[in-house]
Amino acid sequence: MRYMVGVDVGGTFTDITMIDSVTGNVNNHKLPSTPEDPSIAIMKGIEELLALHNVPNDQVTYLAHGTTVATNAIIERKGAKTALIVTKGFKDLLEIGRQTRPSLYDLFKEKPEPVISGDIRYEVEERLYANGSVRTPINKDQLKEIVTDIKRRGITSIAVCFLFSFKNIMHEKIALEEIGRLYPSAYVSASHEIVPEFREYPRLSTTVMNAYLGPVMKKYMENFRSSVKKSNIPVEPYITQSNGGIISIQESVINPIKTALSGPAAGVVAASYIAELTKYNNLITFDMGGTSADFSLIENGNPKISMEREIEGFPARVPMLDIHTYGAGGGSIAWLDDGGALKVGPESAGAIPGPVAYGRGGTLPTVTDANVVLGRLNPNGILNGKMDLDVNASKKAIKEHICDKTNLSLIEAASGILSVVNANMARGVRLISVEKGYSPSEFALVSFGGGGGLHCGSLAKELNISTVIVPPSPGTFSSMGLLVTDIKSDYVRTELLEPKEQNLNVIIEHFKEMMLEGTTLLEAENIEEDKRNFICTIDIRFKGQNYELSVPIHINELNNRDIDFIVERFHVAHEKTYGYSNKLAKVEFVNYRLTACGNLPKVPLNKGNKGEGEIVISKSKREVYFSEVEEPGYYETDIFQRSELVTGDKINGPAIVDQLDSTILILPNQQAIVDPYQNLIIKVNGEVKPDGKQY
Predict the structure, then answer these.
(1) 292 vs 426, which has greater pLDDT?
(2) Contact 3/59 with Cβ under 8 angstroms?
(3) CATH architecture assigned to 78-217
(4) Which of 54, 244, 398, 639 could hold 365 in an S-S bridge, CB 3.0 to 4.6 Å?
(5) Residue 274, Cβ neighbours under 10 Å: how many?
(6) Where is the Acetophenone carboxylase-like C-terminal domain (predicted)?
């Protein structure tokens, strides 16, 4: 492996990272996204980066891509026209759902409209008992009529979800065979292949979304693969999954729902890699881009995985990194509500027209415009001067839309915009930490994304987080995550069992079946046997509870009959999550999960040149307004170039560190030091001692 390329597509910019696996050199590139066709910016950016560093296209031996195609298709309702075939009597389950309202106290808040309308939901006579035995055989004549009608209407995608098919796949297999015979060109998703576990509505919803996305993803992936081939890059691209791993293009077309959080996942994977290098094992990730801010929690070096995620109001029952997104990016628009209160987001100016300062036709004030007005962004331009900033246009927009409608001065309005967006993001951090039994003060904050550096110091201060880590290329950090991840595939079985020794053989058999499936996939991906790893968990609950906790296990614990240790681990997890655990209550095993991992080579990051470990003197200064201090006002602020900093360099705030892909703000009374891997470590409430500890 020589040159490894990772591409992350965001709402505003497309980021590309290239690592030379021989020298360890890292090169980054950033260009505006092309929302109408993301592959345009991707291929243009790859070509530009390779040309810039004189790398022949045929020297690229690894290419991975984090995609937003699936997410955007759901948000914008631009998936394929999809039909649904279900057990007779259940076609309205997609609409009924869980019978819960999106907002408990908002009587006017409407549920999202199902992606499949009622007229193309079909019912077929068939029925299984809860144990999987057949009550009513499937009506093949009726099934034939349904498939014929779907074909006649020109519907290109079909979702199949029968009652209790996770226990017996026979009826769904018959449906697949009939569709393949009568309508071979249709894209088909069957629930036993997508999410073979209990809970009817989430299984149905996930299967439907997979079918809805399938043709869209297939078309995009074929175009992307063709573009890569035409550019003489001799590799098959990988695609990032929502669980942080990567999969082949073929697998992403079969299971597009697994890529629904593809983009944000890459940044969390990169942060996990940083945790391994820096020994900061407990991290909160903060990824602020142009459109949104994403938050996730890493405990003991392991990112949190969630099975209870929703996408645009629809359950998606596939393993995803537990990432929460807020409409708080650099392009988030500031506005006044009916009561005159200042709000920021969730609406964004996006890539086009973008913030007013970018001069692309934007007229509404954004977070970026507030940073421009306060002097926090270089008034002479960003992206190393490649993009000009119109400071006067930003001032005009804030004055016209905020100041003229309130009693706020220009500086008060700009400071208010930043205070509101920081408060919004603080709520996002508390959602993934405080509300789940963690104190933010016990974690370091990893800040990345193009906008993260401008807000991380203020955010950490508000949350009582003592340490902020800003990686060497924060604006393109997510694309680096694509180069330090592994192949992953998830499998699940459902069987409600009490934790008794006589049930162990059934549980072991489930894991053996899943391990065989995972081995088959890893063999197809040419992963050597010594590079394969299997992670096992069991979803456990108290009998009568509605939701489970996922408890990690080792297969040897089952072979050795160590079932009491597994149950005890559940009690510890329940105590941490809910604050109590009743050890006398009956416990129930529910789902058995296995993740097959194929370990890929990781390019070691080079340690930078070491300096004297002294305070660095800046070559330039400018006046910057700070409202986060006891005495708000303009402060003479040191300006540094990130490329000129070396290991051991210290910077006293107030200071600004400029680089191609981001701007990092160090508040007054904060200090930063460059670590051996060129991360900028900001101590929020004090100085850094020579041994790295805070005073």
Answers:
(1) 426
(2) yes
(3) 3-Layer(aba) Sandwich (3.40)
(4) 398
(5) 26
(6) 500-678
